Automatic annotation (TrEMBL):
It comes from the Bacteria. Keywords: Membrane, Transmembrane, Transmembrane helix. It holds the Pfam family DUF6069. This is Uncharacterized protein. It comes from Georgenia subflava.
Amino acid sequence: MHTAQDPRTASAAWARSRVHRRRWFTVLLAMATATALGAVAGPILGIDLALRPGTGLVQEVGILPINLTSLAAGLLGWALLVLLERWTARARRIWTAAAAVVLVLSLGGPPAAATPEATAVLATLHLVVAAILVLGFRGTIAGPRRPALASPQK
């Protein structure tokens, strides 16, 4: 038995699923881009992505930590965005400011790199992942003037 669904409910569900797909795509794109940059910098360009934190021990930065870090950044950013969308009408502004603060704080890590080249690559990774996440997520945030990824008109 097929029940009729209110068109407004169907439209809202379609918009939500589209937002979720776009946000997943954004997280996966950030991960893939970070992986590609790490793969190009390390094996292809010969830049040793290593950190020398305060302990003096050298820690290699491989593809797995790059993947997991970009995934964590994307999922945590998404989680904060969902909470802000539920709690405030100014989610876009607050989330963007929070993302900018996190980016600035994250840039404190690359100077601990073992070489200037590694510092440049790691800083670039942080900037690229942040740009993808901010631009990708901002496009899905419902604002006071427009709904998030409005559904097509019928």
